[in-house]
UniProtKB/TrEMBL annotation:
The lineage of its organism: Eukaryota, Fungi, Dikarya, Basidiomycota, Agaricomycotina. Residues 304-575 form the MTHFR SAM-binding regulatory domain. The keyword rRNA processing does not apply. This is MTHFR SAM-binding regulatory domain-containing protein. Keywords: FAD, Flavoprotein, NADP, Oxidoreductase.
């Protein structure tokens, strides 16, 4: 979606919005850490993020990769920087082609800084000389497909009048050439910024202006960044920070309050600005503190437009339905369905059953290394120890399992104790959804969209325990189930091969949304992955390890089961058959112990 449309919608709704900027790191580990951070910071509710193009164009491939990941996996609208530095036309065209393929609709067009090691900027052969040349090239080749942003410099307000007039004229020419909004450079003097905005408007420039806000992280970092940007530092701000320059925590605390006051004034002035663009410097704490100080709370429809993470690539933007089985493994689902021509939508349609990609080549692997697995899960030598691991995960005492790279979703907290009890009994739950009746969309735990559904459980279970469970399940007409073993033998009590919607949403002016389903074909495809993850867990241990034998035996013999309780008015009913089966198992074990022969042959 174009950023100008997002800004337009925010203005119409008279609400404040915000966005984040990140830059490509230099190392592979730094890149992974940044992606994890972007995913975490998505929960802070940015309308979009933008990714810089490093001075000299040295990280162009990383920029494109970050844009792709943000659009497809993290599911957040992205603006890509594009500079003229070291960029002949063919490289620009490649960057634009990739941006479009990734679903990116927003470009920040810049001349750029001189390449590293050079003091003066110069165009490369076959490249562009000015930012406006890049804008014209983009509009010539892509029409209005891209929103094009340009940079604005509030510091120019301090230039002599004739120089200021020239800078504003050049800015206007860029807007007239096709640019649609303006990102400003960082600043700390609000009076200078407000005066500059008024000068821009007086010149007839009506494009939205987005102020660049730089959280103050450390004193040295603050001094360095303001020097590089040649930004004026108000005396009052320097006087407040300098006495604490060796105390990063105090500097961040003072800086947060000062910058927050600056933001409040910008938003309260009658200059038509309702958005803030945070230069995060790839750091989380400073931006989070600023948002908290400003009491800017993310909207559910921004953070969670659907119960699952939506991909924003061109061929997936309209995807509205997914099987629930991959709820904790979004990347895997996207990989295994990346070659589909269509995705389930509307009333499920006929596209719900394309062939899922085979596991080979789709990156189905555990995130944890051998060392990390040992630290997380130890070396279990009994089923009771495995049960305990799953119980700890459900209670929030364990950050990950082989089937889930992250802690349980917030909605799981309402059933965490019930899930833990099931795991203690031997039902190893790997996916769940609580029953919720008429929850509002803005609910902080269950809400999604611009408001949910049936109870769902998925688990591994040993055959003897399943034999005790199924009679109780089959007595309840509200329960449907699928049972499958490693070999793919499927058993079910459903009367149709069609999907069962387990999440519903009702919104004003829209048809009922049913974004999450359970169906046989998808379950059978997921089965291979579920067993493979368990096998990989076992193989992390030494070949002669009791832990390895235990886990591999479990994966060889256990059955994978999913159960839907089709009456959300009874939120705890789904657990009753499990508790009954568990009680029977305990009774049988007690009877065996009671009748076991003693050494002298007597019973006790």
């Amino acid at each position: 979606m174009k950023i100008s449309k997002k800004i337009e919608q925010a203005v119409k709704e008279d609400r404040v919005w915000w966005s984040f900027e990140y830059f490509p790191p230099r190392t592979a580990q730094g890149l992974q850490n940044l992606l994890d951070r972007i995913e975490r910071m998505r929960a802070l509710g940015p309308e979009f993020v933008d990714i810089t193009w490093n001075a000299g164009g040295r990280t162009s491939d990383l920029t494109s990769e970050l844009v792709r990941t943000c659009q497809s996996l993290i599911g957040i609208e992205t603006c890509m920087h594009l500079t003229c530095t070291n960029m002949p036309a063919e490289k620009v065209d490649l960057a634009l082609k990739e941006a479009k393929e990734h679903g990116c609709r927003n470009i920040l067009a810049l001349r750029g800084d001189p390449p590293m090691g050079k003091d003066e900027w110069e165009a490369v052969e076959g490249g562009f000389i000015h930012g406006i040349d890049l804008i014209r090239h983009i509009t010539k080749n892509y029409g209005d497909y891209f929103d094009i942003a340009v940079a604005g410099f509030p510091q120019q307000q301090l230039l002599p009048p004739d120089e200021l007039a020239q800078e504003i004229q050049w800015l206007k020419e860029k807007i007239d050439a096709g640019a649609t909004f303006i990102f400003t450079q960082m600043f700390y003097d609000v009076d200078v910024f407000i005066a500059w905005v008024k000068t821009v408007r007086a010149a007839g420039i009506t494009a939205p202006i987005v102020p660049g806000i730089a959280p103050i992280q450390t004193f040295n970092g603050f001094i360095k960044s303001t020097a590089l940007a040649r930004t004026t530092i108000p005396k009052a701000l320097m006087d407040a920070l300098e006495p604490h320059k060796n105390n990063d925590e105090k500097v961040r605390e003072i800086g947060t309050k000062v910058v927050a006051d600056m933001c409040r004034r910008i938003l309260s002035e009658d200059i038509g600005i309702r958005g803030l663009h945070f230069y995060t410097m790839n750091l989380e704490k400073g931006t989070r503190m600023l948002l908290e100080e400003l009491n800017l709370v993310p909207r559910v429809e921004v953070v969670k437009p659907l119960p699952w993470r939506q991909s924003l690539t061109p061929n997936r933007r309209t995807e509205t339905i997914r099987p629930i089985f991959w709820a904790n493994r979004t990347k895997s689902y996207l990989s295994r369905t990346e070659n589909w021509d269509e995705y389930p939508n509307g009333r499920f349609g006929d596209s719900r059953s394309p062939a899922y990609g085979e596991l080979d080549g789709y990156g189905i692997w555990l995130k944890q290394t051998k060392e990390e697995a040992n630290k997380l899960w130890g070396q279990p030598t009994s089923f009771a120890e495995i049960n305990a691991l799953f119980s700890r995960f459900c209670r929030g005492d364990l950050p990950a399992l082989p089937w889930s790279d992250s802690a349980p979703a917030s909605e799981t907290t309402v059933i965490s104790e019930s899930l833990a009890k099931l795991n203690d009994l031997g039902f190893l739950t790997i996916n769940s959804q609580p029953a919720v009746d008429g929850c509002k969309s803005e609910d902080r735990v269950h809400g999604w969209g611009p408001a949910h559904g049936y109870a769902y459980l998925e688990f591994f279970v040993q055959p003897d325990l399943l034999a005790l469970l199924l009679p109780h399940v089959e007595r309840d007409p509200n329960i449907t189930y699928y049972v499958i073993n490693k070999q793919g033998d499927l058993r079910t009590n459903t009367l149709s091969d069609g999907p069962n919607a387990v999440t519903w949403g009702v919104f004003p002016g829209k048809e009922i949304v049913q974004p999450t389903i359970v169906e046989a074909i998808s379950f059978m495809a997921w089965k291979d992955e579920a067993y493979e993850l368990g096998r990989q867990w076992g193989n992390l241990y030494d070949s002669d390890s009791p832990s390895r034998k235990l886990i591999l035996d479990l994966m060889e013999n256990a059955l994978l089961v999913n159960i839907v309780y089709n009456d959300y008015k009874q939120p705890n009913a789904i657990f009753e058959p499990f508790l009954k089966a568990g009680a029977e198992l305990s009774s049988q074990r007690g009877l065996k112990e009671h009748t076991a022969p003693t050494p002298n042959g007597a019973a006790h």
